[in-house]
Amino acid sequence: MKMSETKTNLLEAPFELSYKYKRSSGPVMSKFFEALGDKKILGTKSKAQKVFAPAAEFDPQTREALTDLTEVGPGGVIESWSWVHQPSDHHLLQIPFAFALIKLDGADTAMLHMISGCQESDLSIGARVTATWSDTPTESITDIKHFTLEL
Amino acid sequence: MSSDQTPKDYRESLIHLEYQYTAGSATTTFLNQVKEGRLVGQACPKCKAVYVPPRGSCPRDGIATTIEVPLTDKGCIESFTVVHIPIPGNPIVPPYVCAMVRLDKANISFLHLIQGVEIEDIRIGMRVQAVWKPKEEWTHSLENIKWFAPIDEPDIDVSTLRFKEA
After folding, report:
1. A4 touches chain B (CB under 8 A)
2. Does B10 lie at the interface with A, CB-CB under 8 angstroms?
């Protein structure tokens, strides 16, 4: 560790903390991620025909295990959004964008993702958006690059 | 689970955090001394407990530890553990021993390595002394001490180390 003195004569140093780990997506979420590689978004359907998207493994209200996968989207409506004026290095998009809760067509729950390719003033709750896919799928949530307003 | 979903079921992930650490006044004072090869704790003006490394305040009395207390690099092993499992990125090859080292006159201990002794001979209460890196390698870090090694002095009964209100 290389420490340097600040203007107030206090020591400080940059730190980097990094952990690699292997994580299991489980039988339901694995199918969700695999489907993303095929440009498909899957939800799970409960006995009461409620569709959770992104796929959920359990219904939080009934505690029912969910295994019945069903395709949703790729279009949907904005339920809520928040504009990011100045993306930081850690954001996946380096131009101003919105984080948004998007209720995909056929789903009863909303999914958090990004909306790009528009101005803040173009957005409104209820506006229609659709998925823009990555050209290099990795079977992860970033296979959806972002959502874009439907014309 | 069927076999077609097992291998793909695990994905490698990465948690990565970058941040700026600011030491604060007590740790800055301490590390500036460590850079010169000295261990200086701080004492509470009320209960007189000596903290090393100092954090600037006494958790017992909730007041600033304003008294500087020079300490030696000798102490005893208050507690220890033998590490058998390698930690990714850690260059030390197991098995090795991590110990809570209680410096003489101090009322708290800190974690450091114990070397220069067979693992089976390490015991609680054993007297140890710091083994320093060459002076030209000293920085603002307790890593200036390579490890603590046993010295030829009688063991300490660690139950006598319990803090007694002055």
Report:
1. no
2. yes
Bond preceding residue A27 cis, omega within 30 of 0: no
Q: With contact defined as beta carbons under 8 Å apart, do B86 and B63 qualify?
A: no
Alpha helices in chain A (DSSP H): 26-37
- Which among A62, A42, A40, A39 is positioned nearest to A51, based on CA atoms? A42
Nearest-Cα distance to chain B for A6, in Å, is 9
Cα distances from A61 to residues A57, A66, A105, in angstroms, run: 12, 12, 22
Beta pairing partners, B38: none
Q: Quick check: B1 contacting A, CB < 8 Å?
A: yes
First-to-last C-alpha distance (Å) of chain B: 64
Nearest CB partner across the interface for A23, out of B13, B24, B25:
B13
User: Looking at the whole model, is its pTM more than 0.80?
Assistant: no
- List, for residues A65-106, the tens digit of each pLDDT value: 999 999 999 999 999 999 999 999 889 999 999 999 999 999
